Write the structure tokens for this entry.
Amino acid sequence: MAMPAGGEDAARAFYAGLLGLREVPKPPVQAARGGCWFEGGNIHLHLGVEAGFRPARKAHPAFRVARFDALCGLLAGAGFVPRPDDEGRARRAFVDDPFGNRIELIEDR
């Protein structure tokens, strides 16, 4: 996924602080370009700096969430209000990361 230059602290606060992913080091050559990498369970999320950044409003990653209600409440309390969606087979919601990229949260039952 893409992010604007200088957004690493906001990415860490959202993806590590709120979503609970852990930041992993990028290889040195790639680290010099900025961005952040995160992992958790089966998730490997790479955020790279993109010149002329525009948020992904349609294409998005989807994360299965064990404590769906708790996470949605945590996100809302931090100003990232999830938007419930009832079109799927499972409970789900969409939330925007600090850069406006769409993230789907799916309740893992």
Q: What stands out?
A: The CA atoms of residues 10 and 98 lie 6 Å apart. The chain is about 25% helix and 30% strand. The mean pLDDT is 94.
